[in-house]
Amino acid sequence: MEKILLDLSVRYFHSVARTGSLSAAAEELHVAVSAVSRQISNLEEALGLPLFERKPRGMQLTGQGEILLAYANRNHLEISNVIAEMRGLHTLQQKKISIACPEGIAWELLPRVCAQFRSLHPGASFDLQVVDSSRASQLVKDGVADIALTFSLTPILGVEVTLSCEAPIYALMKSDHVLAATGYVSVLELADYPLALPYEDSTIRYLFDIACHLQGVSISPAYTSHSLGAIYNAVINSSDVIALSGIATVSGVIDRDGLVLVPIKDSQLRQRSLQVQIMSGRKFPALILDFLIHLEEKLIAAGSSPVHHSLTEGSRRKSGQSGFLRNARSRAR
To answer: Domain range spanning residue 24?
Structure first.
């Protein structure tokens, strides 16, 4: 089995899995299509498992193929890291950290956290991809991004969660709004005011629409937008408009702007979690490990309550570093 997984056929498999077709993989590898097809067939025969479903429009991974792809992605990254290290390129000062997240995290929190980290590690650089949560997880799974911050609703094969925090959705409004002093609000109460909402493809809107449906409430928002900045400024520049937000999204700016977050009673709006995700089993350079610890600490400081957390209090007292960091560093060696 070990010999099979080190074989050239795994490289061919990796290319077909990424491109979705034999012809595209052949072009990428500069070989004939028949050579790629033969390598895939040989690999499936050696493993005794089907790795692809042959479809008219391309090659689709089976469940077994998804597991092998996770291994191939991890192996590809580790080989790249080893080559860079041998060439003297893999230094702390030169390492770029690639992060994928939705706009709710990219808008204010993450740039602030990255800036704080760069003050400690001036050589660090960041590549930030702003995508929806499912795409962020996929980029980590594929090895395109080092870290994903996502508002997750379901687990994903090949992705390890290093921190999972409760991420309930709040009503965001002016501090002098009539509902600001009520302590809690409901979807029924929110329906009486002009709302600024994201489009239906966001987790906030998805959960809010479920809550509205269960309460028999029909909503016609005063504002809809993909832009968090537009929604946020609609609240700032209106006396009665209410938006929806998590704590992590706006914790650094609401006091400055005279806004407050009011908890929402409806249970559907408490089903979301904010997760820090990495590729399962991947070995990380020291800089990325340090940033992961820094990120998790800042998320908790911003008011996110951890449900699952690798930074255990006992391990901090015992060694001065987190359990996650110790385990990750051992993987890196």
So the answer is: 2-75
d(CA 107, CA 229): 8
Structural domains counted in the chain: 3
Beta bridge partners of 163: 276, 309
Backbone angles phi, psi at 99, to 5 degrees: -130, 140
Q: Report if residue 87 sits inside a domain.
A: no
In sign, the C-alpha dihedral spanning 241, 200, 146, 67 is positive
Nearest to 100 by CA among 65, 132, 142: 132
Segment 152-205, tens digit of pLDDT: 767 777 889 999 988 999 999 999 999 999 989 999 999 999 999 999 888 899
Which pair of tokens denotes residue 6? 């080190």
Q: Is 3 helix (H, G, I), strand (E, B) or coil?
A: helix
Q: Does residue 83 form part of some domain?
A: no
What are 114's two structure tokens?
A: 């990255």
Answer yes or no: are the C-beta atoms of 52 and 21 closer than 8 Å.
no
Could you tell me if 300 and 155 are in contact, meaning their C-beta atoms sit under 8 angstroms apart?
no
